[in-house]
Q: What sequence folds into this?
């Protein structure tokens, strides 16, 4: 018996070691690949990305030395508009699904629809937005069209993260609220929502990172041109007014696609590399911000 | 008992401590009468034929093995079962003569009168002060009254001395036992006539358990307590009346085997099944 036992123990130990090695190698490979991509992009574009004139000046059509000022602004502005539209919608839908929805066919139908929406290729979303907003509604290539396209793209992701955040609040918190004589709405707003807030904020910012880097859904909705912006212009109907949501607005991601597919400027590779570096720095910043804010809110809730 | 408010008629009350001595503390308020109560989940009857009187201002313990329906009955008393789809309650449950099963009172009002403390301490992610002030604030309490109320509730729940200097700190920083006493204080803040407790000490250490039992014994006489517990000694220590419930087989719904004064149930049970259970539980 004892020899048998130790034989089994040795075998189990060997298996454990092998599995650990294999998993470590796979993880190492993935990290290496990721790091290589990020380092490559940063190394090629960092020179441009830290150059203030590149970040602020207008792009050039034919000669070298163009910047990405409008694209940078457009990316952030479009993101803000998208979140203003998609966050309240997603929050409402998620609260309904997590707190109110009865377990019936309609609810599971809604859940399936959201799943399907989240797996739609973004170019399909973009073309849908082109047909509906740009053509049918007559809005043309505009921030409004682009923001709505991104909303379609963003809602499923946000609904799911918010719903999960709400559902992870322990049931006894809900019971406690109701047992105090609060209505379901009061319980949701004053107890469930604050408890879930760190996870919701993290999810919101991560979705912002995804929206920020989106290109395909925008090519045919927000358009591929970036009119020069004049920050002293507050005429909301003017194409050069930055806040005008009816003007076309090429974003960073679309800019990369555009100059690589049809750009003719002599320094297009440098511009493209620089833009890519700026984009990836922004997305990284979103991720770090998400972690930081999530942790901080969590700490505030649970006391130090 | 201390119960400063208990004996005061409402008219006199206004002069001394206005916000605590409302008619909610009237004598004999908070008595439950159960008449042939049954509960079924999606058509399957889990508990049937429960009839009992839960006397006002006394402590009633519900005991019995797991799955005997004691928590189910408890959750009928403030209609917390409403939240589960497919739950149906039969029979009559009268709170001071008003049937709460047939909807003589809406659940929100009922739960203000019948507070509840759960097995898991369920403090809100707010400050200690706000945990208590939350309910009264919704009822429109003024802030200077609130300070007094918060202190009073925390004192009654025997936690004031430990937290008085950190009322603005998050309640989540407290220990499990402190959190549970905070939950009791919170439940007291809406001035309920009845406090339901669903195994309030099962997640706590012996010292915290003792303090909660002391709180119950102190507040007894001011309000009605109905407590579900697995702990026989606890039932013996705190309760005036004991209900013993049992589900003998899964084919038949759980039932109330017997109920009566706690001393009688523990020392001289009428039913052999009660005697066997108590012997087993003690032995």
A:
């Amino acid at each position: 018996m004892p020899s048998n036992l130790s034989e089994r123990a040795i075998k189990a130990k060997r298996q454990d070691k092998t599995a650990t090695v294999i998993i470590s190698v796979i993880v190492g490979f993935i990290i290496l690949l990721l790091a290589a991509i990020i380092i490559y992009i940063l190394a090629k574009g960092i020179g441009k990305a830290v150059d203030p004139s590149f970040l602020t000046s207008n792009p050039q059509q034919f000669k070298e030395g163009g910047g990405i000022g409008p694209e940078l602004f457009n990316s952030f502005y479009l993101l803000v508009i998208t979140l203003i539209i998609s966050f309240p919608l997603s929050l409402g839908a998620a609260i309904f699904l997590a707190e109110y929805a009865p377990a019936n066919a309609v609810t599971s139908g809604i859940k399936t629809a959201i799943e399907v929406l989240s797996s739609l290729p973004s170019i399909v979303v973009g073309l849908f937005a082109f047909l509906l907003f740009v053509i049918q509604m007559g809005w043309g290539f505009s921030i409004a069209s682009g923001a709505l396209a991104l909303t379609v793209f963003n809602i499923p992701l946000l609904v799911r993260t918010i719903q999960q955040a709400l559902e992870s609040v322990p049931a006894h918190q809900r019971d406690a609220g109701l047992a105090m004589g609060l209505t379901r709405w009061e319980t949701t707003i004053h107890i469930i929502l604050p408890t879930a807030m760190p996870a919701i904020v993290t999810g919101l910012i991560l979705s912002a990172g995804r929206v920020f880097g989106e290109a395909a859904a925008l090519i045919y909705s927000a358009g591929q041109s970036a009119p020069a912006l004049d920050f002293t212009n507050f005429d909301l109907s003017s194409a050069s007014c930055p806040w005008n949501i009816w003007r076309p607005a090429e974003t960073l991601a679309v800019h990369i696609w555009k100059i690589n597919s049809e750009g003719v400027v002599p320094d297009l590779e440098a511009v493209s590399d620089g833009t890519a570096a700026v984009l990836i720095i922004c997305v990284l910043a979103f991720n770090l911000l998400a972690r930081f804010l999530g942790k901080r809110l969590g700490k505030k809730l649970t006391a130090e | 008992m201390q119960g400063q408010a208990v004996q005061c008629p409402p008219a006199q009350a206004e002069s001394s401590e206005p916000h605590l001595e409302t008619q909610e503390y009237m004598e004999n308020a908070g008595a439950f009468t159960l008449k042939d109560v049954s509960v079924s989940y999606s058509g399957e009857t889990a508990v049937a034929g429960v009839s009992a009187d839960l006397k006002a201002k006394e402590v009633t313990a519900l005991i019995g093995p797991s799955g005997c329906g004691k928590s189910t009955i408890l959750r009928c008393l403030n209609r917390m079962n409403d939240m589960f789809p497919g739950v149906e309650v039969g029979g009559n449950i009268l709170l001071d003569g008003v049937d709460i099963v047939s909807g003589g009172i809406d659940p929100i009002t009922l739960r203000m009168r019948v507070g509840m403390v759960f097995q898991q301490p369920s403090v809100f992610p707010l400050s200690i002060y706000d945990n208590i002030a939350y309910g009264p604030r919704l009822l429109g309490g003024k802030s200077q009254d609130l300070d007094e109320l918060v202190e009073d509730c925390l004192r009654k729940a025997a936690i004031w001395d430990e937290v008085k200097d950190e009322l603005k700190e998050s309640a989540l920083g407290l220990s499990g036992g402190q959190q549970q006493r905070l939950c009791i204080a919170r439940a007291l803040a809406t001035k309920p006539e009845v406090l339901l407790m669903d195994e309030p000490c099962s997640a706590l250490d012996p010292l915290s358990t003792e303090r909660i039992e002391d709180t119950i014994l102190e507040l007894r006489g001011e309000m009605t307590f109905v407590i579900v517990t697995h702990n026989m000694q606890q039932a013996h220590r705190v309760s005036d009346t004991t209900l013993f419930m049992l589900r003998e087989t899964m084919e038949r719904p759980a039932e109330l085997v017997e109920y009566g004064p706690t001393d009688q149930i523990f020392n001289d049970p009428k039913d052999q099944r009660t005697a066997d259970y108590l012997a087993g539980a003690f032995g």
Remarks:
- Chain A touches chain B at residues 102-103, 170, 172-183, 186, 190-191, 194-195, 300-304 (CB under 8 Å).
- The radius of gyration of chain A is 24 Å.
